[in-house]
Design goal:
With 355 residues, this protein is of the alpha/beta class. It is built from 10 helices and 15 strands.
Length: 355
């Protein structure tokens, strides 16, 4: 795509989550940083080089930490070190009580970093990840600056955050971010669960399902709640999610080959497919490939820094999408789909997305 309003990288960080958004003016937002920072650091170096910038001059406008699980925030400590004095904002969710947030090892390091740098003019600003009605949730671009695409907080509002803090499942407090250009949308729900999607539905009232061009599958295709829940009229949480709340043309599952959580869960993938979504994953698991040991580093040749170059088996590796006001395109989509189709014909059962 020529002249995209934003380029989005769904970074293959293994079992974890990380997205990089590069806006048309070169401003950059990270949504989570995965547990292993190496693929993210390598990608940011590549973006710096491809942009024609001098070494170690790339600036990060903002980092969004959807919630405080290590597979989402473990890599941020290295990013803060690597990009010292080149980060403007860090947004942190309140997914648990304040005393527990302050005891989180990563948060302790972030606060120490602020204290160490607060005499310097380029110290970053620490913000709460909560919807603000004054700005309609928008965090980028800042007031007075015009860009075609915008990044906003959809969830939580303040009362949602307070509610999430009263229960033990911290995923219920995970932030949900929206990248939008005209009618084109990419949704980043982190590990958001039932509370978040009920809130999104409630806010929409009688309007149809929330539609997006790409959905980063919540919780890596895992559970929407840590406890058993009832979804009247639906067989499971995922049928409810895609049948009543969300509508997505493409769904990206960020998973690691060796994960022990059964991510992505078959019911999650199949619910997305049943409701018209095409699926693409960062890495393969043995649910989709019956002979992983025979595969090289990835089903599709790797073009961007990816965790599967060191560990795991890639499905698409790091996935790149382009957004403007007319369309959203995923780079090398057709190549990936051909490879999945070939895999489906060569083994039984076929990959989850083709069952």
């Amino acid at each position: 795509m020529k002249n995209p309003a934003a380029t989005v990288y769904f970074v293959d960080v293994g079992q974890g989550s990380c997205q990089v958004i590069v806006f048309e003016d070169g401003s950059i937002y990270l949504i989570d940083c995965g547990k292993d920072p190496i693929p993210l650091v390598e990608l940011l170096k590549k973006i710096e080089q491809d942009s024609g910038l001098e070494k170690d001059t790339l600036r990060i406008t903002g980092i969004v930490l959807s919630h405080l699980h290590e597979d989402h925030i473990g890599g941020v400590v290295q990013i803060l070190k690597q990009f010292e004095n080149r980060i403007d904002h860090v947004f942190v969710s309140q997914d648990r009580s304040p005393d527990k947030i302050l005891k989180n090892k990563v948060i302790e390091k972030i606060i120490k970093k602020i204290k160490d740098e607060n005499e310097k003019p380029n110290s970053f600003c620490l913000n709460l990840l909560v919807y603000c009605g004054v700005t309609c949730g928008k965090i980028h671009p800042p007031p007075g600056k015009k860009l075609r695409a915008s990044l906003s907080i959809m969830y939580p509002q303040a009362h949602d955050s307070w509610k999430a803090q009263t229960q033990s499942d911290v995923n219920q407090g995970s932030g949900v971010m929206l990248l939008q250009c005209g009618r084109r949308r990419i949704l980043f729900p982190g590990d958001a669960g039932k509370l978040a999607f009920e809130a999104i539905k409630g806010k929409r009232g009688t309007r149809p399902k929330f539609s997006c061009d790409i959905l980063a599958a919540p919780h890596h295709g895992g559970r929407l709640s840590s406890k058993a829940e009832v979804y009247p009229g639906y067989s499971d949480a995922y049928s409810w999610l895609f049948g009543e709340i969300l509508e997505s043309k493409r769904t990206v599952f960020s998973v690691g080959t060796g994960n022990n959580h059964s991510h992505p869960m078959a019911e999650h993938v199949q619910a997305a497919v049943r409701n018209g979504s095409k699926v693409i994953c960062t890495q393969l698991t043995n649910q989709c490939h019956t002979a992983l040991h025979t595969l090289g580093e990835s089903l599709v040749k790797i073009k961007q820094p990816s965790a599967c170059q060191r560990e795991g088996k890639g499905c698409a590796g790091t996935i790149v999408a382009f957004l403007n006001g007319r369309e959203v395109k995923i780079s090398r989509w057709s190549t990936h789909q051909i490879k999945v189709r070939e895999l489906s014909k060569s083994q039984s059962p076929p990959p989850l997305c083709r069952r």
